[in-house]
Design goal:
Elements: E1 4-6, H1 10-21, E2 26-31, H2 32-37, H3 39-42, E3 50-54, H4 63-75, E4 83-88, H5 90-102, E5 108-113, H6 116-122, E6 127-132, E7 135-142, E8 148-150, H7 160-177, H8 179-188, H9 195-212, H10 227-238, H11 247-264, H12 270-283, H13 291-297, E9 312-319, E10 322-329, H14 331-343
Parallel strand pairs: 1-8, 2-3, 2-4, 4-5
Antiparallel strand pairs: 6-7, 9-10
Protein name: 3-dehydroquinate synthase
Enzyme class: lyase
GO molecular function: 3-dehydroquinate synthase activity
């Protein structure tokens, strides 16, 4: 995992990177939360820089916010030898990377993830993007950051809700690629998690898959386990004022639903499904879905990026620790899975 730096070496490596590259200008992109809680922890490692604060939250991961970033870069005369430092969670990383990738046909950016979700998933793999017409990551490009600097000290600034959101992606990595870790950790639970160990292990799973298939033509699709249903749930609730879900909360719903579909299609055993459901229930509160909610979620499935010629393609589990991609599912099957989730 070259160019990914963990723990106590992360901040010195960030300072070294900025000094050695002699960038013409440096922009630190942050939101109101990371500017308050995280920027002071890393400020002394930075060379001379500008700071741009943008509003937090998935609802602000839009073209409107992107325009503000491009306007700032243009007004401050950032050239192609500049760098953007994305200091934040998945929204900052996705949008900051997207804006850097498009500005002047691409300037350098690095990620300093400040949430567990960003540390184990969003900051790694080179996916950048923004939401459009309420569809998750509808606009985006593949563009790798030049480096990623991951320090667990930022986790101390997070609420338990945000920690749980990131933990959903850690669980996903175990379910698709590490049955032994799932078996161990389902007994340990969230509160016993050793982030110094779990974060690098989780990043290693994703990095290995991304390296084998950087543009998601095949194998990388397994990283979308839980996300076909999960993204539809997340997109729907983004438009339900006061009921918005964090990404990991929606993915937790998706993991259960897609595990159920795996069992219904004769892949996953009933015993394995039960293990997954029990573990997820021990971490995540159940999302209440009314019949109207389920009806509202289903249309979002038509915009999933894995779809092909109208067929909804999903990632399913053959067993815990082994996923298969490009599995066709129907709207009716997802509807049954969402009803099943609600009855648990």
């Amino acid at each position: 995992m070259e160019n990914i730096f963990f723990g106590t070496e992360a901040f010195p490596k960030l300072q070294e990177f900025l000094q050695n590259k002699a960038f013409s200008q440096v922009l630190v992109l942050a939101d109101e939360n990371t500017l308050r809680d995280c920027y002071p922890l890393v400020k002394k490692q930075l060379t001379e820089h500008h700071v741009l604060q943008i509003p937090s939250g998935e609802e602000n991961k839009t073209l409107v916010t992107s325009e503000k970033i491009w306007q700032f870069l243009s007004e401050k005369q950032f050239d192609r030898w500049s760098v953007v430092v994305n200091l934040g969670g998945g929204v900052i990383g996705d949008m900051g990377g997207f804006c850097a990738a498009l500005y002047k046909r691409g300037i350098t950016f690095v990620n300093v993830p400040t949430t567990l979700l960003a540390m184990v998933d969003a900051s790694v793999g080179g996916k950048t993007g923004i939401d459009f017409l309420s569809f998750k990551n509808q606009l985006g490009v593949f563009q790798e950051p030049k480096a990623i600097f991951i320090h667990p000290v930022f986790l101390e600034t997070l609420s338990l809700r945000l920690i749980k959101s990131g933990y959903a992606e850690v669980i996903k990595h175990w379910l698709i690629a590490d049955a032994a870790a799932f078996e161990t950790q389902r007994w340990n639970g969230l509160l016993a998690a050793d982030w110094q160990q779990l974060i690098p292990e989780s990043v290693a799973i994703k990095s290995k898959i991304v390296k084998a298939d950087p543009l998601e033509n095949g194998l990388r699709k397994v990283l979308n386990f839980g996300h076909t249903v999960g993204h539809a749930v997340e997109s729907y609730f983004l438009n339900q004022a006061g009921r918005e879900l964090l990404h990991g909360e929606a993915i937790a719903v998706g993991i259960i639903c897609e595990s159920y579909l795996s069992e219904k299609k004769g892949l996953l055993t009933a015993s394995e499904l039960s293990k997954i459901e029990t573990f997820m229930a021990s971490v995540f509160e159940k999302v209440k879905l009314t019949p109207e909610d389920i009806a509202g979620i289903l249309p979002y499935l038509q915009q999933d990026k894995k779809n092909f010629r109208g067929t909804i393609n999903c990632v399913l589990l053959e067993e815990i620790g082994k996923a298969i991609y490009d599995q066709p599912i129907t709207i009716a099957e997802v509807e049954r899975a969402l009803h099943y989730y609600q009855l648990l």
